[in-house]
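Action item from last week, closing it out:
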Amino acid sequence: MAKCAICGKGAHYGNKVSHSHRRANRIWKSNVKSVKCIVNGTPKRLYVCTSCLRSGAVERA
């Protein structure tokens, strides 16, 4: 699973809890996209989460 190059957000692990309170392992995957960004004046392909894209933390190429 990819991590965000800006904030480091990746997969979160925890328990899925049913109505009868039985527990099973579960993964919540973050919404990470492969985006072409401008880094030091040159376009580069990075993995960036959508919250960083919305906040304007990256300059799209």
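Closing note: DSSP finds one helix and four strands in the chain.
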